[in-house]
Design goal:
This protein is of the alpha+beta class. It is built from 2 helices and 16 strands.
């Protein structure tokens, strides 16, 4: 009986892996189709266009949870220390930004009105990190994360890491507009910021800033004793 149960569990795991793989393939195809239509490279059910705006429709997707991501030369989708590129501002669906979130595609319920918006005037956060004596502290990473706990999820564009230069200066360009916490930490693994409990521990000692598109925000930090 135990052997049969083990075989059954193994079969279930294999089936789940196959479904996960299939779902990733479907998501990839969805993203490629959206990119192709938005940027005009192919015409999959391409609808009327007006100026810079392009309407599109995609059919044949199976009911599941989906995320829309964009990868395109010249388009920044994650915060960087460089400027001068188009930046993904939002992907709106039913009044919610789904650029970082999954949405459900249900049978008989078409998803309409998805709008991807790009900007060449992104947020720009910069500053310096110094120790108690005022000297640059380049060895301490800075975690910048949304003040909205609903954004604390793996792969969120609203969580970033800034690593100060030797003079203590740091810069992040392209975070979605909103309110953020900033906290310098002694050590950091990239996976730490995917853990909401880790971010929660940083909140009490953090500084809070408001970032707006097209506005350069300067926030200096000093290490606590």
């Amino acid at each position: 009986m135990a052997v049969r149960d083990e075989k059954l569990e193994r079969a279930k795991k294999i089936a789940h892996r196959k479904m996960d793989f299939l779902r990733h393939v479907i998501i990839y195809l969805l993203v490629m189709a959206v990119l192709a239509i938005i940027f005009g490279s192919v015409g999959l059910r391409r609808a009327r266009t007006s100026g810079r705006r392009k309407a599109f429709a995609i059919t044949g997707l199976v009911p599941a949870s989906y995320r829309i991501g964009i990868t395109m030369p010249g388009v920044r989708t994650t915060p960087t220390a460089a400027s001068g590129a188009w930046t993904l501002s939002s992907i709106m669906l039913d009044g919610a930004d789904v650029a970082d979130r999954a949405f459900d595609l249900r049978p008989g319920a078409p998803v309409a009105g998805v709008v991807a918006t790009f900007t060449d005037r992104p947020t720009d956060l910069s500053g310096t990190l110094v120790d108690q004596t005022g000297r640059p502290a380049p060895g301490y990473p800075i975690v910048v994360f949304s003040a909205d706990r609903d954004d604390w999820r793996q792969g969120s564009r609203r969580i970033a890491i800034a690593r100060p230069s030797t003079d203590g200066s740091f810069r992040l360009v392209g975070l979605p507009a909103g309110r953020y916490h900033l906290a310098a930490v002694v050590s950091l693994e990239r996976s730490d910021v995917d853990d909401p409990s880790f971010l929660e521990q940083l909140v009490p000692a953090s500084l809070t800033v408001l970032l707006n598109d097209g506005v350069r925000t300067v926030q200096h930090l000093k290490l606590a004793r």
